[in-house]
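Try this one yourself first.
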């Protein structure tokens, strides 16, 4: 009975010792990754480079939190009857969308470098930060006007202003 496990152990050791070619090391799958994963994406699951797994789990947690906050806001919006309180929901949802994009963009830094990926990361990094910043700026404008005039601008106007500011920043960054 104990013969078969010992035989399997010896065969695996012999096979491992005979497959130490340098070509096979470059094709070897890192510990923690499945066999179907191709080379540029191995940092996403490599247990030897713990920072990749840590960044991936933190980004997934942040993305999940942004999605949950967005769903809670959308569900609670049904119960808010005052227009001043409802008008700020559009920029907040855009802010959560930008935060979700930034957390999703952190996955692109775990993939090996490529020219197209580098261009995409730089473009999206600036655009998503511009979206988040413009949403925060629009919320400041809304709160200032709400404090002075006791009424808030419309939700469509605030969302349009946030998207317009983001577009201007995107155009400036593209040049």
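Now uncover the answer:
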């Amino acid at each position: 009975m104990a013969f078969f496990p010992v035989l399997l152990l010896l065969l695996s050791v012999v096979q491992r010792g005979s497959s130490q070619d340098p070509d096979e090391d470059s094709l070897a799958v890192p510990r923690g990754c499945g066999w179907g994963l191709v080379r540029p994406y191995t940092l996403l699951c490599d247990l030897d480079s713990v920072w990749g797994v840590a960044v991936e789990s933190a980004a997934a947690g942040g993305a999940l939190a942004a999605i949950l906050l967005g769903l809670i806001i959308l569900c609670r919006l049904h119960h808010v009857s005052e227009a001043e309180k409802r008008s700020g929901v559009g920029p907040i949802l855009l802010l959560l969308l930008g935060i979700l994009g930034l957390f999703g963009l952190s996955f692109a830094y775990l993939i090996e470098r490529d020219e197209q990926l580098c261009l995409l990361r730089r473009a999206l990094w600036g655009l998503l930060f511009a979206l988040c910043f413009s949403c925060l700026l629009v919320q400041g404008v809304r709160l200032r006007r709400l404090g002075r005039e006791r009424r808030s601008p419309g939700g469509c106007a605030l969302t349009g202003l946030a998207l317009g500011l983001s577009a201007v920043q995107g155009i400036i960054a593209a040049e």
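Discussion: Residues 43-174 form one domain. The chain has a mean pLDDT of 79.
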